[in-house]
Each structure stands twice: as structure tokens, then as C-alpha cells.
Amino acid sequence: MKFKICIKHRATIFMLLLISILLLTLYFQNRTSNENYLIQIAKNYKKNFDNYYIYFKKQLILFYEVQTIYMQNNSQYAIQLINKKRFLKDIEIVDFKEKQIQTIYSNEVLKGKSFLDIEVTKNDIFYKVVVPIKKENKIESYVVYKVDSRFFLQSVKDFDDSNGIIFVKDNNKMNDIFLEEYKDSEFFKVMAQKCEEEHDKPVVKYEDNIYVKKIMDFKNFKNENIANAIFFLDISKDKKAFISTVRDSIFTSIILFILAAIVVNYFFNYLIKKIDKKEEELKSINRNLEKMVEKEIDHRLKVQKKADEEKSKNEQLLMQQSKLAMLGEMIGNIAHQWRQPLMQLSAIIMYLDAYNEKGKLTPEKFTKKIKDGNSIIDFMSKTIEDFRNYYKPEKQKEKFLLKDSIDNALFIVNSSLKTSNIEVVTNYCNKNIELESFKNEFSQALLNIITNAKDILILKSIKNAKIFIDVKEENNNVIISIEDNAGGIENKILEKVFDPYFTTKHKSQGTGIGLYMTKMIIESNMNGDIKVKNSTNGARFIITLKV
Known about the structure:
It is elongated and about 185 Å long. It contains ten helices and 16 strands. Among the domains are: 83-234, no CATH class; 393-546, Histidine kinase-like ATPase, C-terminal domain (Heat Shock Protein 90), CATH 3.30.565.10. Helices cover 56% and strands 21% of the residues. Strand 5 (163-168) and strand 6 form a beta hairpin. It has 547 residues and is of the alpha+beta class.
């Protein structure tokens, strides 16, 4: 017993399914959005930090380049500058040309551009701003400004409120150099450890807060890693605001979906009622249609049965007409075959009568002529027997040589062909091809085609009249081609030659069923194929049979 779900229940299940899909979608969307948000925040933080660090270095160099100009004009300006800038720890002027010394910065200074270096001491890390001094377009000295790295930390703090740790790593891990204020800070030590351990994660957590981080290397003027820094920014408030926004969005989506579901449900109920009504109408129409179809089927079956009966009668009539036509052909062919023997018998009788009147008929001559007459009578008797066997109906299929069947058909019309001076040219690729079917039926089919060819050749009085019979094997098929040289069939009637009662002969000469019967024998009884087309010589009938 099949369990059927009504449309109302289907609608309810559909709504529940939609709600489940929505909730799952919102859950995964919330989860994905949160992860994507943290990843994006981390990317933006690192990008902004990198941009700011490039800006910081440029501004630091630019500032001290300007201070160098002031200092060249005022020898006391260096002391004032140190007193004014709390992060500036020292200023050193190096005249390497005058003292004829080579410093670590000499080669770099000679390039004519200011640059930064990093210096690490026992407990501190410094920026060193190196500014070349030009005199008469020659560089013979430079100024080194020693700036506390805490200046960079303060600058970053002012920029985006990030906290930072600058330190120097040591392979023993016990001798890491931290700035003095970090040594006793549990927060900075834990954050430094977490940032390194979770370097592949976009954020780190400490207590109830979430931080984005940036790990960077401090490089000296030779581009060597001298120190390390970790910066982190508390984004807990931003994340809470984002979560709140997402939750509000989800809540709004749920409310809107519920309202939509109510509207859809109302619409569904309305549709269901309409569908139920239409369904009842359809059932009623179907019941009426079933009755009409049953009546129509009964009517058509009766019409079909009547048509089959008519077809059967027509086929029987055709068969009867075919038999009568065959009988007429048989008598005509027997007449052709007997014409010469009868003339020979007549000549023997006339010979005996003439010799008897003259008294010259000897017993020896009489006996010889009697024997000749008996031979002729035996030949005529055999002819009758051959014709009787040829037209005798067959009850079962048999194996036979294709060549024998063609020879039998030619034998029947042999006398008529000779009388009409029609030459038959046969060509066999293999004379031992065997078929399994009704031998006489097949010979009759061939005979109908050959007779048609003979009649048209006689009708058109063709000189050097010929009938070509060609047999060949191809792809497990035997192809029999029968062609005349009478010029062919008119194109407008070419497709009608196999139709029953269609004939181009006078009513006294043809019934129009010979080629129709041939088609039935080849295609229905022998599961073959027969076609006709015009060649350069005349009409060509092509029979294809399975070997």
C-alpha cells in the first residue's frame, strides 16, 4: 500500500524545510562572517601598519634633515634640540675627511642620501638617523641622531592606539633583550609569547579581550635583522559591535522570513483550495475521457477488424488473380515449348504418309520414325512435368542453390526468349551460393522481373535486346541485379511499379500484380529488399537477401 501525502501536508513540510535551510544558512553565515571579519581586520591592520611605518621613517629622516640645516647655522642648536626632544638621546657630528678616518657609514654617506640604522645596547634599542652634510657640493661629514625606539612605540600608540614590544631575540631564549618597562609586565610577556606561538592566526585572545597583531623585524642600514617588534591592537569593542550588527541582521532576516512565510502559507492555502477544486474537475473530465476513449477504441477496433478482413479478402483476390495469371503464363510458355516439337511430329506424320503412298515405306523407316516420334512425345511430357513441378505450391522451406533457381526461371521463358532473339547474360561471383527459402516462390519472383524485361524489349522492338543478370556477395548479403537495355522506366511512374494493379501494358497483356507479388515474396516471405532504378542501359531491379 503506497503512502500518499496530501498537498497541505506537502506545503507544511516545504515551509519547515525552508525554515531549517534558513536557520542553517544564517548559522553558517554568522560563523563565516565572523571568521572573515577577523581575517579582514587583521589584513587591514597589517597593511595600515606597514604604510604607517614607511611614513614614520620618511618623516623621521625629513625632520632631522631640517634640524641639520638649523644646526649648521647655529652651533648651540644641538644642545637645545637634545633638551627639547625627550626621545633624542645624542647627536654626533663625524668629519671623516678632516680626521681622515673610515667609519661604518662613510660609504653609505657618500651616496648623498640620509638613512636609518638600528643600534642595540645591553638594555636599549635605538634608531640612528644619519644625515650627510654637504659643503660646496662635497660630502665630508655627517650627523648621527640617536633616537630612543620608544619614540616609535609612542608614535604608533598615537596613530591607532596599538601597544608594542620591541626586543632582541637570543638563541638561548633566557637572554632576550627587552626594554626596561617590559621586564616586569606580565601582560607584555604573555602577549609576546602568544603572538609568536599563534603567528598563523589572525587574532590572539588574552583574558576576555581580542587583539589583532603585527610581527615585524627591525633592519639596520645593511638590511640585516637587528631587533624584533610585536604590535597588537584591542578590537574587542569593534568585534562586539560587529557581532551585535550581525545578530540584528539575523533577527531582522528571521522576522522578515516569518512574515514572508505567513504570506506564502496564506497564498499556498489559497492555491491548495483552487488546486483541490481543479483536481475534482480534472477527475470528472478524466472519467468522461476514459469513457470516450473506450468507445473510440471499440469503434477503431471494429474499423480495424473490418479493414483487416477487407485486406485479407483483397490479398486472397490478388493471390487468386496471381494464380490465374501464372496459369495463363504457364499455358503460354507450354505453347511456346510445344510449338517446335508439334511441328516435328507433324513433319514425321507427313513423311510417313508420303512414303506410304509411294510404297516406299519400309519397316525399317517406319520403326525409325516411330522412335523419333516417341522421343518428341517424351520431351513434351517432360516439359509438362517440369512446368507442373515449377508451379506446385511448397509447404516448407528448403536449401537450394541460387543459380538453380535462376536457371529454372530462365527455362520457363527460354523458348519465348529465343523466339524474340533476346540474349540473357549471366554473371556469378560464386555459383555455389545457397539460400534457405521457398525455391519455387523465389523462382516465380525472378520470373516476373525477367518476363517484364522480355515484354518491354519486345514492345520497344529493341535491336540486340539483352537481359543482364549479375550476382555478387557483399557484407553477408547476396545482391541480385536484373537489368535490361530497353531505355528505362519513366521517372513519374518509377515509384509505382510495385503497386498492385499498376501496369503500363494493355489490359489484355498485363494485370499489374506480377511485380507486387514479387515484392511480397522478397520482402515478406524472404525478409529481403527489392528496389528499382534506371541505369544507363535501362531498368535495373536490385534484390538484396541475407545469405
